[in-house]
Amino acid sequence: MLLQAFYPVRSEQLLLQRLEYDLPFRWFVGIGVDDAVFDDSVFQETRPAAGRAIAGKLLA
Question: Which residue ranges does the record assign to the Transposase InsH N-terminal domain (predicted)?
């Protein structure tokens, strides 16, 4: 989600496409050159947990 905020990536699908070929993006996310890019269901699974963690830190 940080990559979407810092770079003009309009959607999660476009972000995943960019992760396929953009080595700095892969490095930032921690994906190796030969590793497969995860699918878009990862965003749906991790977004609620990330939102709760951020909200908890802001309210603390």
Answer: 1-47
Q: Residues of the chain with pLDDT > 70: what percent?
A: 63
In single-letter form, the type of residue at position 5 comes to A
Q: Give me the domain span that covers residue 11.
A: 2-59
How many domains does the chain contain in total?
1
Q: Report which residue type is found at 3.
A: L
Give the pTM.
Answer: 0.57
d(CA 28, CA 45): 20
Number of neighbouring beta carbons within 10 Å of residue 52:
10
Report long-range pairs for 42-47 (Cβ below 8 Å, ≥24 apart): 43/12
Rounded to 10 degrees, the C-alpha dihedral 53/25/37/32 comes to -100
Contact between 18 and 12 (Cβ < 8 Å): no
